[in-house]
Task: inverse folding
């Protein structure tokens, strides 16, 4: 192969043409997204189907969702480096890579979403310390820096880069101090994941999302952090399983996956109990105090029917948690993957309702529900980061030792 | 500021709109757009894309003829005070582009600082905030008719009713030039107030017993929109019709209307 000098030792990769074709296909999708992105930047947000009722829409949901899904990076790092779950060192590279993709995607989407992108730095310069978004911007940017530092040693482990003594030593030393960054990352993530929950939780003018809380933090602050720590690892497991299926080989040993699945399962189980308590309190105390009933939020149209609450809490919460905390469930590969996917879908549904349904529900009694369908430009720019993620995974998997157990699990016959 | 020009005590500018007088003619909306250089497009059929600081709602009691009743409700920005100036939109703006002025009670919008994240729009339950989805394009020659006291806004930012803040500045400048501390009630009136042919809109300082709004807001007919949320708006509405007052907020089926309770207390 033309690029064999770059491929890690002891692993087998597909022919170059196959790799190039996959990158080309993903690049095609990426270019479609870039075209839509340029339209939004040049012509403005009139390219979207947002309006004065839907100031937040697909992009903000995508932002919240990818940040929650990228939560696997900080939580796996916390478990590996701070809590000493050593087995997870075999999965931490991929968790960091997925986190890096998710967080860089979130920043790109935000750059498209704001009406005046050239003024985006005002959020730092004219920061309003009372705003949850300010806290999100600061912590998210700082954590992205941490992710870059966490991803860097993996890049430096490329066969050719590693030959240069400086890079080799830098990589070696970075590994030694990684616990510091993992702890910093967990600290920052706790706050920005929580603040993203606070974004909707503090909206006391929107009874659907408003929650009481402790001091300046609404309950959604804690629920968002908790759900990201629970469902982020689910996403990491789901993507790992998908990668194994596409690569056609096992990349991580079962005990590693099952350890993370077990922890994610218990996080999900405890989260969903907290979520149910929160929902009951909101439905019976908070919303009625504003003159609204639970079913006021789930009637009028089929899209926001009560089914969405059942889907979020029951099918994508209780069910995967039950599978993951049960040894038999975790050991069944199909059930394990199903639970991981459901967990990831569940957190996406939660973010969807907290962003979109919040705006769909009328608050003024003489207003009606407003529904929204994204424009193709919004869809394309949301798929753009997915294509970028696929490309980055393809390149990283081919040229970097992302999965340390791969050579052992797939010995090459000489 | 020189001591002789200092004004007495904080103001709390607000509005009282008598819905029993409003005919729904829309003069207030037209005056508002004209006064504040609000941009418009050839096709304004999608009202959710319009830059309208003041919107007129048509409410009905939902009863069939002959019991049908209609009420028109003009809705400017409520300039919410919230709890100690903690209005829904001000506290969420990440770039401090909107501010609650405790000296006037007016919620301002700094167009050149807003970067268009639209978080304030999500926070406002009244839909009083609008986004500039397009750059303003004026019909040929119309630039000459724009109000020179109000800056035009660019694409990609949020704007809203300012209680014609430029008129307050103008009135204060005049009072300053004449060596007065206080501005008179009639010196600062919003465009919509002056344009209303039915005299349904009254504007003034809610803290000042000499101003008409001071008494009007204490009327047993008075209510505010979505009071139960804790937004503490400074726009009051008047109506003698129970169904109209009930339409101003959300109530559970077994709950009495807030303003109705208020009336009962007054009668008692």
Result:
């Amino acid at each position: 192969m033309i690029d064999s000098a770059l491929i890690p030792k002891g692993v087998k990769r597909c022919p170059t043409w196959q790799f190039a074709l996959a990158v080309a296909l993903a690049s095609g999708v990426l270019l479609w997204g870039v075209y839509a992105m340029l339209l939004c930047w040049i012509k403005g947000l009139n390219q979207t189907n947002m309006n004065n009722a839907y100031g937040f829409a697909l992009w903000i949901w995508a932002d919240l969702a990818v940040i929650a899904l990228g939560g696997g990076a900080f939580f796996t790092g916390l478990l590996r480096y701070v809590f000493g779950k050593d087995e997870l060192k075999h999965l931490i590279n991929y968790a960091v890579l997925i986190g890096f993709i998710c967080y860089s995607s979130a920043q790109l989407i935000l750059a498209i979403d704001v009406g005046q992108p050239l003024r985006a730095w005002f959020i730092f310069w004219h920061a309003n310390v009372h705003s949850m978004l300010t806290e999100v911007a600061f912590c998210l940017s700082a954590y992205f820096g941490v992710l870059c530092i966490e991803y860097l040693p993996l890049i430096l482990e490329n066969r050719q880069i590693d030959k240069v003594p400086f890079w080799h030593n830098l990589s070696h030393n970075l590994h030694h101090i990684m616990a510091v960054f993992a702890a910093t990352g967990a600290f920052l993530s706790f706050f920005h994941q929580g603040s993203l929950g606070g974004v909707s939780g503090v909206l006391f003018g929107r009874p659907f999302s408003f929650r009481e809380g402790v001091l300046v933090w609404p309950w959604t602050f804690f629920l968002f952090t908790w759900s990201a720590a629970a469902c982020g690892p689910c996403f990491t497991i789901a993507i790992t399983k998908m990668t194994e299926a596409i690569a056609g080989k096992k990349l991580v040993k079962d005990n590693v996956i099952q350890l993370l699945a077990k922890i994610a399962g218990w996080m999900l189980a405890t989260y969903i109990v907290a979520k149910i308590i929160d929902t009951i309190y909101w439905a019976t105390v908070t919303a009625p105090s504003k003159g609204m009933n639970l079913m006021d939020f789930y009637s009028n149209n089929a899209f926001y029917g009560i089914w969405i609450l059942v889907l979020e809490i029951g099918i994508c919460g209780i069910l995967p948690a039950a599978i993951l905390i049960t040894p038999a469930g975790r050991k069944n590969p199909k059930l394990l993957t199903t639970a991981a996917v459901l967990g990831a879908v569940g957190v996406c549904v939660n973010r969807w309702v907290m962003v979109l349904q919040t705006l769909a529900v009328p608050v003024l009694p003489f207003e009606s529900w407003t529904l929204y369908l994204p424009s193709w430009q919004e869809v394309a720019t949301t798929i753009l980061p997915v294509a970028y993620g696929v490309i980055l995974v393809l390149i990283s998997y081919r040229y970097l030792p992302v999965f340390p157990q791969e050579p052992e699990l797939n010995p090459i016959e000489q | 500021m020189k001591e002789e020009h200092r004004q007495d005590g904080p103001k709390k500018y607000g509005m009282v709109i008598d819905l029993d007088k409003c005919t729904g003619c829309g003069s207030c909306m037209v005056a508002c757009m004209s006064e504040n250089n609000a941009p418009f497009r050839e096709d304004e059929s999608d009202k959710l894309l319009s830059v309208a600081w003041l919107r007129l709602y048509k409410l009905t009691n939902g009863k069939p003829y002959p019991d049908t009743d209609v009420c028109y409700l003009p809705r400017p920005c409520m300039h919410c005070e919230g709890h100690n100036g903690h209005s829904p939109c001000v506290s969420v703006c990440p770039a401090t582009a909107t501010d609650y002025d405790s000296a006037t009670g007016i919620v301002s919008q700094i167009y050149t600082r807003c970067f268009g994240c639209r978080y304030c729009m999500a926070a406002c339950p009244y839909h009083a905030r609008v986004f500039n989805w397009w750059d303003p394009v004026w019909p040929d020659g119309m630039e000459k008719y724009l109000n020179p006291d109000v800056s035009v806004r660019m694409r990609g930012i949020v704007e809203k009713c300012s209680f014609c803040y430029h008129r307050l500045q103008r009135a204060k400048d005049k009072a300053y030039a004449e060596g007065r501390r206080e501005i008179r009630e009639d010196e600062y009136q919003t465009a919509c107030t002056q344009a209303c042919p039915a005299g349904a809109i009254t504007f003034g300082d809610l803290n000042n017993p000499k101003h008409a709004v001071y008494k009007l807001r204490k009327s047993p007919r008075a209510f505010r929109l979505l009071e139960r949320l804790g937004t503490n708006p400074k726009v009051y509405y008047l109506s003698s019709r129970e169904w109209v007052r009930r339409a101003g907020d959300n109530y559970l089926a077994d709950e009495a209307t807030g303003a109705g309770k208020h009336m009962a207390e007054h009668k008692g």
